[in-house]
Each structure stands twice: as structure tokens, then as C-alpha cells.
Amino acid sequence: MIALLEGAGKEYEVGDQKIVALHPTSLQLNEGELMLIIGPSGSGKTTLLSLLGCVIYPSFGDLWVAGKHINQLKGKELSKLRLDTIGFVFQSFNLLAPLNAEDNVALPLKLQGYSNTEVKNKVQKALEIVGMTERRKNLPKQLSGGQQQRIAIARALVTEPKLILCDEPTASLDKDSLEIVMKELRALAKKGKSVAVVTHDPRLEAYADRVVEVKNGIATEIFKS
Ligand SMILES: Nc1ncnc2c1ncn2[C@@H]1O[C@H](COP(=O)(O)OP(=O)(O)OP(=O)(O)O)[C@@H](O)[C@H]1O
Prior knowledge:
By secondary structure, the protein is an alpha/beta fold. It is built from 6 helices and 10 strands; from the N terminus they run E-E-E-H-E-E-H-E-H-H-H-E-H-E-E-E. A 6-stranded mixed β-sheet has the order 6-7-8-3-9-10, sandwiched between helices. Helix 3 runs parallel beside helix 5 (145-157) and helix 4 crosses helix 5. The radius of gyration is 17 Å and the shape is globular. The structure holds adenosine-5'-triphosphate. Adenosine-5'-triphosphate (ATP) binds at residues 12, 14, 19, 21, 39, 41-47.
């Protein structure tokens, strides 16, 4: 098990109003699973993903990620846990425009303080996994949306995170790129990673081991293979 929510949820205070973005939720995410998080806009999907990603603390309940009780960690410990354990993939790729593909992929490793040789080897391996070795010298603007997302996936997996979290990873992609990206995420899950994907797109269900639907802040598991 990589993540466990026990009655965990999130409440925001806006002025004198309290908004429950995610009601108490109990679920676990295991190694080797691709979990889809679906639901209407504003339902709490990103909030659930942000809890799994240790980006926010739960307002109530308990959250464990990679064996750590998140409620008890300080901000700095949380940042380290994120860097060491979690890879993030976003709808808009978030690649740095002036850096070529391999330098984008190298970024998290540099933050972790790896030597140049180690960075080179790990980047090469990550680019191979996503089939982008030949495009390593290209700038983001020289790549299609699907290719940019594959570079973003390489950047997310280069640190060998146990958990890969994706927020609408296919929303900017055409059908063919969607298939390539989802097959890659599926393959990573098969290799033992835990992958969680927030989406509006029902086509992604074909790639999921589990589907969690969030409606009005209430998360319900609706499919398990
Ligand atoms: N930082 C915040 N402060 C106040 N309210 C917030 C905050 N973040 C989210 N919310 C509220 O929590 C609820 C759930 O938001 P969330 O972003 O999780 O939904 P979502 O399902 O991801 O939506 P979308 O599909 O549109 O991205 C919404 O009502 C939103 O307005």
C-alpha cells in the first residue's frame, strides 16, 4: 500500500463560510494499480489528488503516504517526501520552455543533488521508457502535445517515485496521443508503481484497475477489476 486515507477530507474557510471540498474519505491505493478519479467540475477530485500528493494537509481524518503519517509532518518534511516519493503530471505539461527535453527531465534529479553522470544515466533511461530518446535535444515548442506529455511523464518517473499523480493528463491531447500516454501510465502501474489519474474523460476507464467517483465532495469506489 502506498497511500491510505482514513476518514480524511478537506474543508476550506472562505470569509465566514466553510466549504467542505472533500467529505471524510476512506480508501487505499496499492502498488501496481492505476486508479481513475472521475466526477463533475468542482466535485473535489483535485482536492483528493492533492491529499494523495501531500500538497495539502487533511482538515480531518488521517492520511498516510509511503508509510508516513502526513498529519504529523512539517512543511519541509512534506516537500522532501513529495520530491522522493511522488511524480506529478499536469494537463498543461508544465515543461520549462527554454530547456530541451533532456534538461527538463533532469530537473528533479538536480534538485535531489545527483552527480552529472548519474543524472545523465537516469535521464537516458527515463527517455527510453517513454520512447523519446531521439527527441531529447528538442525544445518543448518543437514537440507535439503528446510528445510534450511523454517528456513530462519521463520527468515524473525519473526519480523513480512510488506514486505518480496525474491531473487531466490527456485533456490537451488528440486520440492517438491519449492512447500512447495512457498505455505508458498503464505500463508503469504494471511495473509496480501506483498511479492515480484525475479525468473528465470516460474513455480513460478502459485503462483503469479502479475508478473512484467524486460527487459533491463524496468519493465512492464504483469499479474495481
Ligand atoms: N483553496 C481553496 N479555497 C477555497 N475553496 C476551494 C479551494 N480549493 C478548492 N476549493 C473548493 O472545493 C471544491 C472542490 O474543488 P476541486 O478543485 O477539488 O474540484 P474538482 O472536482 O477538481 O473540479 P474541476 O474538475 O473543475 O477541476 C470546489 O467547490 C472548490 O471551489
